[in-house]
Design goal:
The complex is a heterodimer of chains A (about 130) and B (about 375). Chain A is an alpha+beta fold and about 130 residues long. In chain A, about 20% of the residues lie in helices and about 35% in strands. Chain B is of the alpha+beta class and about 375 residues long. Among the domains of chain B are: about 140 residues, Gyrase A, domain 2 (2-Layer Sandwich), CATH 3.30.1360; about 70 residues, Elongation Factor Tu (Ef-tu), domain 3 (Beta Barrel). In chain B, the strands form four sheets. Chain B has a six-stranded mixed β-sheet, with helices on both faces. Classes of the chains: A alpha+beta (about 130), B alpha+beta (about 375). Chains A and B meet through strand 4 and strand 6 of A and helix 3 of B. Chain A: This is Glycine cleavage system H protein.
Chain lengths: ~130, ~375
């Protein structure tokens, strides 16, 4: 597992998702290196619809690999503002670039500071060991 | 040798276990054995594609090995297992089934006919002890049934480049599909059988247990120049599902007979006797469900036990389902009511969502095993 990376500028959930807080208050969400490695080759992704309102912990999509399927959980409460359409044709981006082109969706949290309550990188790494 | 069945004891280890650990493979339980599912630098899709396009090498040492030896051993096996061993000559192997008297499948296995007095069997890992127990209980005096699970390893080399790979080790190639040669590699005996579970041209090698690591190392090095790689049981499962090959415990079981699984081609119906003959003959006249292939036309991957509906009515369930790396679509094997025909559209309940699929006759991808 030592070759898996966890950027220090992200927040993390215990469900192995990452959250990047943007300057405009919108957050971007994806799954961690750990999650994509555990899933194996991702072959399908279904995502929430833009405009959906979600509550933290809601199942709002699925990420499916050759071996298994996992729910995509909303890390925060808020409104979905964008989804990564590239994953439709290239779900493998989640494996090859989980923090970059493999992002899943964006949302505007109802509480702008809510992301600060999620784990930082040290907390997430500690949770994996 | 009952440890393989208990499941609560510590996992059994392949003779290549330390090789898999050194390669960083993801390991998982398979029939009581701790086996590689996929390797770093590969992954199910890349390993699958290597086999379809080039070559891959698999450790399948969890498979059972057993022998039936003594005067008339082949006749004895022929009176127990379903397929007709008299259809093949010594030096050939045959896919066959071990049924119980009700026609349920205890296991599916490969029988290697060495001579009239010597039959070598490759059952599934979890069922070996039970197959051996049943044969031993039925064996007449003079015929010995031995469980050799830990006496041999099994390494599969599968893909169009498998001949070149074996030739680079000085091993025999080019013999007919389902035939085997007892060869020698660096002074060590190894059986080279033209068999496999992938649908590609390929071989399964049976070295002695202690010789397996050196042979594995040589094969892993030998596949590399051909763009091949070690492949785990994850890719083995997607490869076999694309072929429609059944997996015991999912597509064949004590509850899924060869009639239902449409494995009747592996039953010697004209033989005087085999275990389960009367029950299977009766069922054959009036099967209640039959194995079909499902090719998903929408988005979604059917998994085992997903319900299948036709015209709004449940007509059966999926027994094996996966993503086909070759077709980039969901595929499945499903037991359906006999009235549902090939070409019809059904709906698979994938976690509450209806996914459309077409009923088809497997294989989903063209079989290459007999390619010259």
């Amino acid at each position: 597992m030592s070759d898996l990376e966890y950027p220090s500028d992200l927040r993390y959930t215990s469900d192995h998702e990452w959250v990047r807080v943007g300057d405009d208050g919108v957050v971007r969400i994806g799954i961690t290196s750990f999650a994509q490695d555990a899933l194996g080759d991702v072959v399908y992704v279904s995502l929430p619809a833009v405009g959906d309102t979600v509550t933290a912990g809601d199942s709002c999509g699925e990420v499916e690999s050759t071996k298994s399927v996992s729910d995509v959980l909303a890390p925060l409460e808020g409104e979905v503002t964008a989804t990564n359409a590239a994953l439709d044709g290239a779900p493998e981006l989640i494996n090859s670039d989980p923090y970059g082109e493999g992002w899943m969706f964006e949302m505007r949290p109802s509480d702008a500071a809510a992301a600060e309550a999620l784990m930082d990188v040290e907390g997430y790494k500690a949770s994996l060991s | 040798m009952t440890t393989a069945q208990s499941g609560t004891t510590s996992p059994l280890l392949s003779p290549l276990h330390d090789r898999h650990v050194a390669l960083g493979a993801k390991m998982a339980d398979f029939g009581g054995w701790d086996m590689p599912i996929e390797y770093p630098g590969g992954g199910v899709v890349a390993e699958h594609t290597a086999v379809r396009e080039r070559v891959g090498v698999f450790d399948v040492s969890h498979l059972g090995k057993a022998s039936v030896v003594g005067p008339g051993a082949a006749d004895f096996v022929n009176a127990c297992l379903t397929n007709d061993l008299r259809r093949i000559q010594p030096g050939s192997a045959q896919y066959t089934l071990c049924c119980d008297e009700s026609g349920g499948v205890v296991d599916d296995l490969i029988a290697y006919l060495k001579s009239d007095d010597d039959v070598f069997l490759i059952p599934n890992a979890a069922n070996t002890a039970e197959v051996v127990r049943r044969l031993a209980a039925a064996a007449p005096e003079g015929i010995t049934v031995s469980n050799l699970h830990h006496d041999y390893g099994v390494i599969a080399v599968q893909g169009t480049k498998s001949d070149e790979v074996l030739e680079s080790l000085g091993l025999p190639t080019g013999h007919d599909y389902m035939s085997f040669v007892e060869a020698d590699w660096q002074g060590r005996p190894v059986i080279v059988c033209r068999t496999g579970y992938t649908g590609e041209r390929g071989y399964e090698l049976v070295p002695r247990w202690d010789d397996a690591p050196a042979l594995w190392d040589a094969l892993v090095a030998a596949v590399e120049p051909f763009g091949g790689m070690p492949c785990g049981l994850g890719a083995r499962d997607t490869l076999r599902t694309e072929m429609g090959y059944p997996l015991h415990g999912q597509d064949l079981s004590l509850d899924i007979s060869p009639v239902q699984a449409r494995a009747g081609w592996a039953v010697g119906w004209k033989k005087d006797a085999f275990w389960g003959k009367a029950a299977l003959e009766a069922e054959r006249a009036n099967p209640t469900r039959l194995m079909r292939g499902l090719l998903v036309t929408g988005r979604g991957i059917p998994r085992a036990h997903c319900a299948v509906a036709h015209d709004g009515e449940t007509v059966g369930e999926v027994t094996s389902g996966t993503f086909s790396p070759t077709l980039k679509q969901g595929i499945a094997l499903a037991l359906l009511a006999p009235g549902v025909a090939d070409g019809e559209t059904v709906s698979v309940d994938v976690r509450g969502r209806g996914v459309e699929a077409t009923v088809v006759k497997p294989p989903f991808v063209q079989v290459q095993v007999r390619e010259a």
